[in-house]
From TrEMBL:
Descriptive protein name: Uncharacterized protein
Organism: Micromonospora tarensis
Domain of life assignment: Bacteria
Lineage: Bacteria, Bacillati, Actinomycetota, Actinomycetes, Micromonosporales
């Protein structure tokens, strides 16, 4: 009768997996070095502590959701192609009706660009009573002529319409809005505002500052109008 016995000569380390030469007698080795034994012990104790915290409710089994805040910083165009894209986008916004009250500021900025390109803007671009193409040494504009006598009746009607729109409490408006409310053309409305202001029957303010020159107002510039009560047309 023959007996067969087996003895493990080499086994893998329980931590690093390297081969361990087992002794012929005695207790089998599980780790090749003391450092592997220590790391395995730390892992077992850490797992027990983690499971204890989970059971006690100190650790969430489902993590919280990640919250990300993304901030997009606008970048200035630096190439001709980027400027073309930016200006085309601005044109689309203007066609869509954006910036109705601040278009005079865009005219000033674009006038500086055209001047730098050697193409001054037309004299029709007037801001604050001065053509954007005017230079400090340019000749002053001729005084604004008084409205002809044939427009007296129309001017009186425009004055009455403006006073009626303003009401006793005044109105925050634009020349374009006054045109829609009164049905009067913008040039005649300018004459009516001039007549009321010259007769000290109306006060125009923009950004809390008095408006000294009605012609400096663009059609879409917002201003505040206060008219004295009474028959403004007769007083003028």
């Amino acid at each position: 009768m023959t007996g067969v016995t087996e003895r493990e000569i080499e086994t893998p380390c329980g931590w690093c997996g390297n081969a361990i030469v087992q002794p012929a007698r005695g207790r089998k080795k599980r780790y090749c070095e003391r450092s592997c034994r220590q790391r395995a012990y730390e892992l077992r104790t850490a797992e027990r502590r983690h499971q204890g915290d989970v059971d006690a409710g100190r650790i969430r089994t489902v993590p919280a959701q990640r919250v990300v805040e993304r901030t997009v910083q606008p970048r200035r165009p630096v190439t001709v192609a980027q400027w073309e894209t930016a200006l085309a986008d601005l044109a689309e916004q203007l066609h869509a009706g954006r910036y109705p009250w601040e278009r005079h500021r865009l005219r000033v900025a674009l006038a500086a660009v055209l001047d730098a390109l050697g193409h001054p803007p037309p004299d029709s671009w007037i801001v604050h009573g001065t053509p954007l193409t005017a230079r400090p040494d340019a000749a002053p504009e001729p005084p604004r002529p008084a409205p002809p006598a044939v427009l007296d009746d129309a001017l009186a009607a425009a004055v009455s319409a403006v006073a009626a729109c303003a009401g006793p409490d005044g109105i925050d408006t634009t020349l374009t809005r006054l045109q829609a409310l009164t049905g009067q053309p913008v040039p005649l409305l300018r004459d009516a505002l001039h007549a009321l202001a010259d007769a000290d029957l109306a006060v125009l303010r923009r950004h809390a500052e008095p408006v000294d020159d009605v012609d400096a107002l663009s059609e879409h510039a917002r201003f505040q109008l206060h008219v004295q009560r009474g028959d403004a047309a007769a007083a003028v």
